[in-house]
């Protein structure tokens, strides 16, 4: 591995400032590195009052004000870019459509793909900027063949999973100034710099679900959209109908809580959601061992560099959730289909989630899970 590369030469940089501590310190570090930096806050809600507020927010008027104050302290120009229509079409509508189809999407990953490193980057380049800097915890390394993305050094904050959708062009125009630091170091630096967001809590959950009740939000948006109005909860082994539900959008593979079946399994063990059939409205439940997955298929791959044909060996892993464990795997690629054999079982893996492939700490790319098999 060579020394970190893409950020060494001075560039004109847009710093995406969410209003949190990470993006503020990232912008400050970009200035320290000699770049000509302009802070930009993304207005993503057509009605900001409907998005999260307070400590759990990330797309609110409060956050825009926090970002502006941070830019003032750093001493950089600051603007707000309204991308609310694009965000609604590419992220919010996608989230609803995926749940309506019985899949489990990751809206943060989709936001990175469609908004921060597509819409924002394209606008920045059109305006004469060279790169976009964000507060993500990941590392970029320049090699003879291009730019590699690696995990951040802080295992607890590494965000390379949600960046696994970025291609080589996007990586070449990106800066991640925090990748070599821990969260504790970033907060301490923010305090030293006099940034008022130094102790601001991290945002959580989904920014466009105002109260954090994903199922309630989906019920409001999808409740009248057939066939999502309701259906049966069925024991997968016996076929017995155990209860009714208000919509398949309220469930995800591996879910245990909130089934409201009213009685335990005959053996007393808890039941989990095993399968979701949105057309019939059937939700199938059963024991945890039925959730075990050893094979999965991914579609719509996004490669950070040259597309591989096969990846095997001790350093090859797949991550299936944003904060999930690395699982040793063997990966085979055939056109737009990615087949993954897990060398140890994973549980509760749902179509719609992203499978991000690593070779050591290097992010190879990602695919959207379309099917799983035991």
From TrEMBL:
It is an enzyme of class 2 (transferase). ATP binds at residues 16-23, 42, 135. InterPro entries: MnmA-like, MnmA-like_C, MnmA-like_central, MnmA-like_central_sf, Rossmann-like_a/b/a_fold. CDD domains: MnmA_TRMU-like. The keyword Cell membrane does not apply. The record marks 136, 353 as: Interaction with tRNA. Residues 222-286 form the tRNA-specific 2-thiouridylase MnmA-like central domain. Residues 294-369 form the tRNA-specific 2-thiouridylase MnmA-like C-terminal domain. Its EC number is 2.8.1.13. Residues 157-159 are annotated as: Interaction with tRNA. Belongs to the MnmA/TRMU family. Catalyzes the 2-thiolation of uridine at the wobble position (U34) of tRNA, leading to the formation of s(2)U34. This is tRNA-specific 2-thiouridylase MnmA. It comes from Nocardioides marinquilinus. The gene is mnmA.
């Amino acid at each position: 591995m060579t020394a970190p590369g893409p950020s060494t030469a001075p560039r004109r940089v847009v710093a995406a400032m969410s209003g949190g501590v990470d993006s503020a310190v990232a912008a400050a570090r970009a200035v320290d590195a000699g770049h000509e930096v302009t802070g930009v806050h993304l207005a993503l809600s057509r009605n900001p009052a409907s998005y999260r507020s307070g400590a759990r927010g990330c797309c609110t008027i409060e956050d825009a004000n926090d970002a502006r104050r941070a830019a003032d302290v750093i001493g950089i120009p600051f603007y707000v870019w309204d991308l609310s229509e694009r965000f609604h079409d590419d992220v919010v509508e996608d989230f609803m459509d995926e749940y309506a189809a019985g899949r489990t999407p990751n809206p943060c990953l989709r936001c990175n793909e469609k908004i921060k490193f597509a819409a924002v980057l394209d606008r920045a380049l059109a305006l004469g900027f060279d790169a976009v800097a964000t507060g993500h915890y990941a590392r970029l390394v320049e090699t003879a063949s291009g730019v590699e993305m690696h995990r951040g050094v802080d295992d607890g904050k590494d965000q390379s999973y949600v960046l696994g959708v970025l291609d080589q062009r996007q990586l070449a125009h990106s800066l991640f100034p925090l990748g070599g630091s821990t969260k504790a170091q970033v907060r301490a630096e923010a305090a030293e710099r006099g940034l008022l967001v130094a102790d601001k809590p991290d945002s959580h959950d989904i920014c466009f679900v105002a109260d954090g009740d994903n199922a309630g939000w989906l019920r409001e948006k999808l409740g009248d959209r057939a066939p999502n109005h309701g259906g049966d909860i069925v024991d997968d082994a016996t076929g017995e109908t155990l209860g009714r539900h208000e919509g398949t959008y309220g469930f995800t593979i591996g879910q245990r809580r909130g089934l409201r079946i009213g009685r335990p399994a005959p053996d007393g063990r808890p039941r989990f959601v095993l399968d979701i059939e949105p057309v019939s409205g059937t939700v199938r439940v059963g024991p945890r061992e039925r959730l075990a997955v050893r094979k999965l298929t991914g579609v719509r791959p996004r490669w950070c560099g040259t597309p591989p044909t096969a990846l095997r060996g001790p350093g090859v892993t797949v991550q299936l959730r944003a904060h999930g464990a690395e699982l040793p795997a063997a990966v085979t690629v055939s056109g737009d289909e990615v087949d993954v054999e897990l060398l140890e079982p994973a549980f509760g893996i749902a179509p719609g989630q992203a499978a991000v492939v690593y070779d050591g700490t290097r992010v190879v790319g990602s695919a959207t899970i379309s099917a799983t098999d035991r």
